[in-house]
Specification:
Chain lengths: 245, 275, 605
């Protein structure tokens, strides 16, 4: 059975249609990559899954439940976590406080303490810096913190919005490797939005391609890498799709 | 002759050394790039150069001279114009008006007594003169504005298919890429000695990046000196005459692109094993 | 002396309570909640009602005031701040300010403007200690503040929701993605702040012994001074700022007498804003990173009128008094004078995106300058008019000069403080201004020996000046200067990096507004023949602002329409004053929420 399933999801912002009825499905333990040009609806899809945006029609099934109308906190408590675009750690707060906010939806103190210990085990660098103000850490450490913060809610699915955005080539490699690790070691399902198609597909199992709110293509990662239409859609070469205002 | 020469530049934020003893040079007609991992101090360096931030230590020479006061206005007046990481256009103004603001620096007839603009009390004089000229423009002022408008059109024609049809659109309705183009046109219309670009292709897809590279190569061919921060390595390597690599607030390597690319320290800190 | 210090500290406690609320809300929503002072005022009056009228015990009354204030705070957030959370902060600044007007006037209607003796539920003078006299009431005030501040600090540091408050302050979007219900957190901060404010109001009543709705709410305004002194967003800074203001106020009154209180407090406030805007304990970053631009409030273009439209409007405006008679003409004069104040505000509030909450200051300066010059020095009217404008421009702009490197609520608070200081100086500078007695016998307007006496003549004179101001402002708007001003309002850093001295241009927009306000003040003085400080109230400042918001922040002609609707209609319909102000507040909130571009504007396409 699939872990999460989006069925004919439509979203609009006022008069502007962002998604015109898309389908998306993920199995437990997969890494799925969401590709597409500017304003193709990638981020909206993510936000819909997180409950930050509500669809005008269509349904979301998560783990056998219909969650279309669930608010964000309930979704997070049930195992969906987010690594927001550009990391967005809480700069003025300490590393540990950042992690605790990650576990905001969890009320079991014992469990929170246990998860905290797990993160410090997994990322010893964060343990060293637990009382440091998060904003003063390097870019790589902040990315690490963003992952650890997402793990604090005990997720089965993590949505990552452009996790490699604005990172140096070396860090991009490291981040992709650690995404693959999370998936392999913890069995966490990962949905990621990426601009850098080749890199993202190199660690993903499957991928979807969006163009101006429609799902135009989907398939195995290796297939997609070879598909000329991926190049076209991702590069936004068609005038009609690329430069709409 | 160096358009820009900085030595020993340092800046700390609440104890954290963001930029630590950085030195770099941009010669006339040269394109110089800064690359480096996130948080290595690249954008902070640009902000220090353009006066948006004040350095704790270090000298910045523009055309061989230090600036008396390092406010962004004075830096701009001395010929250094910049763009921003996320495309800061004036959202409530049209593309045309955005670029028109770039001509402000060069206006004379419309801005009498502008030498007094920097003095807090004397600034009354140029300000009141501008109000009077707005109400009763002299023939010279009219002529100058017409000329400025021509230069605005020239800049729009740099991106004829992109900005041409959108000259009168409000800038907040523009796509991300068009904002960057408007920003560059706005800086160029001021006739900068040095154009400072902060990640000019961030958020652009590959075809847009290629287009931007073409534009920048044309600018370079026209002799425009440029200083840019950028992550896209292909672009940096194709465009630059000289590359500085920063890590932890310091310059760890510099040289022509080919040499920097194979520098072990650069591979270790920035490029990673794959390159 | 020691008595003075103790009483200062007790006052300071109350200020601290209000200031902490302001800082808390600012931290979470990046909005300076101007309604905070009014919530305190309301709390004070409710306390009087619970203890004095209903006869409840003091502790129960405190709880009841806390609960009532919580509800009010929640409502303020619901109606004014939350709907605008995605809008530029200038929008919420205006609506919280409007909310404070609504609350103040509602309070006046419910409790009436009568001065009430505050009941003494606790002895105020029963403890003698080393020559000092203290009361249980003072100790309760001290104790309450101490305990709540410690509890609040611990809560923010270690509590689950406290942490969520800080996370939401740092990055609301990211907090939401972690499952924090940001809306709930914002509600929580408003409720906490309002409870503190409301209870602070009761304490204010207890030590001052008498209250009116306005006196209590004014004391709440001093809370802003405390919050700014401590540094907006800093909780401990707010406490320290409150105590410090209390002390300085007490010492100041001890030294100079009570009449100077406003001048002293708001003068101090101005000095702090000008010299150290991030406060004594705040971090500089909160000042420089604050993204306060007026870009999208009133984004849109004025509806064009056309040559024939202008001609028709002009002709009917001129013809109006001859058809409708002198009563309408004097109402028309009022409209015109307010239009003169409001039209140039499109350059300040519209183009450069800065809100002046104190236009009464330059109006007062212009009125007094012209009145004094024509009565004492026998200057002709025309000279007085121009001198009034010039004096208003020079004095207001010079005092506020350093503030123009800042933005948003710093500018708003500074201009508001200026209004208090100017009126305070006029009240106290008796040898020149004649203090509270005002100036009588100001000559009627006259040109070359022709004296304008009738309402129709006054109206026509005002109309000519309205047209002149309209013309100048439209010229500026459509010139290169206008484009530059709009650029400054849209993105200040980007403007500076293009070589634009943004501070000068913001000051210029304010100077133009002040000049016009000064001229309007002079007209007012010569047409009334008499002025005193009570003419130049905060209500006048509010009205000017509401007019531009109603008409459209970018539309000079909209300001005229705004003046007709807000000044002309109530005058014609003879609507009572308190109802008017209540209505102004409601109109401002509704407009900003549902038609931010104003009446006479088209939405940007």
């Amino acid at each position: 059975m699939s872990l999460i399933e989006l069925n004919q999801i439509k979203v609009s912002y006022g008069m502007v249609k962002a998604l015109n009825g898309i389908d998306l499905m993920m199995n437990s333990g997969e890494i799925v990559c969401l590709l597409g040009g500017n304003a193709s609806g990638k981020s909206t899809t993510m936000k819909t899954i997180l409950g930050l945006v509500h669809p005008t029609s269509g349904a979301i099934r998560w783990d056998g439940h219909e969650i279309t109308t669930w608010p964000t906190p309930r979704r997070i408590a049930s195992g969906i976590a987010s690594v927001p675009e550009a990391r967005r750690i809480f700069g003025p707060m300490t590393v540990e406080e950042n992690l605790l906010i990650g576990a905001y939806t969890c009320r079991d103190r014992h469990l929170i303490r246990q998860r905290l210990a797990e993160q410090y085990d997994r990322f010893p660098r964060l343990a060293e810096r637990r009382t440091q103000t998060a904003g003063t850490m390097s870019g790589g450490e902040q990315q690490m913190l963003a992952f650890a913060r997402a793990l604090m809610s005990g997720p089965r699915l993590i949505c990552m919005d452009e996790p490699t955005m604005g990172l140096s080539p070396k860090l991009v490699d490291e981040v992709l490797a650690s995404i693959a690790d999370l998936n392999r070691d913890l069995g966490i399902t990962i949905l990621m939005v990426e601009q850098q198609a080749e890199l993202a597909l190199s660690i993903a199992h499957r991928g979807y391609v969006l163009a101006t709110g429609d799902m135009v293509l989907s398939g195995e990662a290796a297939e997609l890498l070879d598909n000329p239409r991926v190049q076209e859609a991702y590069l936004g070469r068609t005038i009609a799709n690329g430069e709409t205002e | 002759m160096n358009v820009l020469e900085i030595t020993g530049l340092s800046k700390s934020f609440s104890g954290l050394r963001a930029v630590n003893g950085v030195g770099l040079r941009v010669a006339e007609h040269q394109t110089v790039s800064i690359i480096g991992p996130n948080g290595s101090g690249k954008t902070t360096t640009l902000n220090l150069v353009t006066g948006v931030l004040r350095p704790d230590a270090g000298t910045i020479l523009i055309n061989g001279h230090p600036l008396p006061a390092r406010h962004p206005e004075q830096v701009a007046a001395s010929g250094i114009l910049r763009t921003f990481q996320n495309g800061r256009v004036f959202g409530n103004l049209s593309v045309n008006e955005n670029i028109e603001i770039g001509t402000h620096l060069g206006l004379r007839a419309n801005r009498p007594f502008k030498v007094f603009a920097a003095h807090p009390l004397m600034a009354w004089l140029p300000m009141l003169a501008e109000v009077l000229l707005a109400c009763f423009p002299t023939p010279a002022a009219r002529r100058e504005l017409a000329e400025a408008q021509e230069r605005v059109n020239e800049q729009v024609n740099r991106f004829p298919e992109r900005l041409g049809p959108r000259q009168n659109h409000l800038a907040h309705t523009l796509s991300y890429a068009n904002r960057r183009r408007t920003e560059i046109a706005r800086s160029l219309v001021a006739g900068p000695e040095l154009l400072v670009l902060d990640e000019p292709t961030a958020g652009m897809n590959q075809s847009e990046t290629a287009e931007m590279l073409k534009q920048l190569l044309e600018l370079k061919a026209s002799g425009q000196a440029m200083l840019l921060v950028e992550h896209k390595l292909d672009l940096v390597m194709t465009l630059s005459d000289w590359v500085y690599v920063m890590d932890g607030g310091q310059v760890i390597a510099s040289g022509p692109p080919a040499r920097v690319r194979t520098d072990p320290a650069v591979i270790d800190a920035y490029l990673g094993r794959k390159s | 002396m020691l008595d003075t210090i103790i009483s200062g500290l007790v006052h300071g406690n109350v200020y601290a309570l209000v200031a902490v609320g302001i800082s808390l809300i600012f931290g979470v929503t990046n909005v300076v909640n101007f309604a905070q002072g009014s919530i305190m005022g309301f709390g004070a009056m409710l306390g009087w009602w619970y203890i004095g009228v209903l006869g409840w015990p003091w502790w129960l009354s405190l709880v009841a005031v806390g609960v009532s204030a919580a509800v009010i705070g929640w409502l303020v957030n619901l109606t004014t701040v939350r709907p605008l959370i995605k809008a530029p902060p200038i929008a919420a600044l205006l609506t919280t300010f409007a909310a404070s007007m609504v609350l103040d006037n509602f309070s006046q209607m419910v409790f009436s403007t009568e001065t009430r003796a505050y009941p003494e539920p606790l002895p105020t003078d029963n403890i003698q200690l080393a020559g000092l006299s203290l009361g249980t009431s003072d100790l309760v005030t001290f104790g309450f503040t101490l305990v709540t501040m410690l509890a609040l600090g611990a809560y923010l540091r270690f509590g689950r929701d406290g942490r969520a408050i800080r996370a939401s302050a740092a990055d609301p979007d990211a907090a939401q993605q972690m499952g924090v219900e940001v809306r709930r957190v914002q509600n929580l901060s408003f409720i906490l702040a309002s409870v503190l404010g409301g209870i602070g109001g009761v304490f204010f009543g207890m030590y001052s012994g008498i209250v009116t709705p306005t006196s209590a709410s004014f004391t709440g305004t001093v809370g802003f001074v405390a919050a700014a002194l401590g540094g907006l967003g800093s909780i401990s800074g707010a406490v320290a700022g409150g105590l410090l203001i209390g002390l300085l106020e007490a010492l100041g009154i001890y030294q100079f007498g009570g009449g100077f209180r406003d001048v002293f407090i708001f003068g101090l406030f101005l000095v702090v804003l000008l010299v150290r805007p991030h406060g004594l304990f705040g971090s500089r970053r909160t000042v420089t990173t604050e993204p306060m631009t007026g870009t999208f409030l009133g984004a849109g273009r004025s509806i064009p009128i056309g040559k024939w439209g202008w001609a028709g409007l002009g002709a009917s405006a001129i013809g109006l008094p001859f058809v409708a008679g002198p009563v309408v003409a004097s109402a028309g004069s009022q409209v015109a004078i307010y239009a003169i104040m409001a039209i140039p505000m499109v350059l300040l509030a519209g183009s450069v995106g800065q809100v002046s909450l104190g236009q009464a200051a330059p109006v007062a300066i212009g009125a007094y300058a012209s009145a004094l010059l024509t009565t004492e020095l026998d200057l002709p009217f025309a000279m007085g008019l121009l001198a009034g404008g010039a004096a208003a421009m020079v004095i207001s702009t010079l005092i506020t000069l350093p503030i123009w490197r800042l933005n948003g609520h710093y500018v708003s608070m500074a201009t508001m403080a200026l209004a208090y200081v100017v009126v305070g100086v006029i009240l106290n500078w008796e040898p020149v201004t004649n203090g509270a007695y005002g100036i009588a016998g100001i000559p009627a307007p006259q040109f070359f020996g022709t004296v304008l006496i009738t309402p129709v003549q006054h109206y026509l004179l005002d109309l000519v000046i309205v047209m002149l101001v309209l013309w100048v402002v439209l010229r500026i708007q459509h010139s290169h200067l206008g484009t530059v001003l709009a650029g400054v309002g849209s993105d200040e850093t980007a403007s500076r990096c293009l070589g634009i001295h943004t501070r000068d241009y913001k000051a210029l927009a304010y100077a133009v507004c002040s000049f016009c306000a000064g001229v309007a003040g002079a007209l007012l003085a010569h047409q009334y023949n008499y002025i005193d400080p009570t003419v130049f109230t905060i209500q006048m400042s509010i009205l000017v602002l509401t007019i531009v918001v109603l008409g459209g922040l970018n539309s000079p002609f909209g300001a005229v329409i705004g003046a007709v609707v807000l000044v002309g209609l109530p005058e014609a319909l003879r609507i009572a004053n308190d109802v008017r102000i209540l209505a102004y507040g409601v109109i401002m909130i509704v407009m900003i929420r549902f038609r931010p571009q104003g009446l006479w504007m088209r939405r940007a396409s």
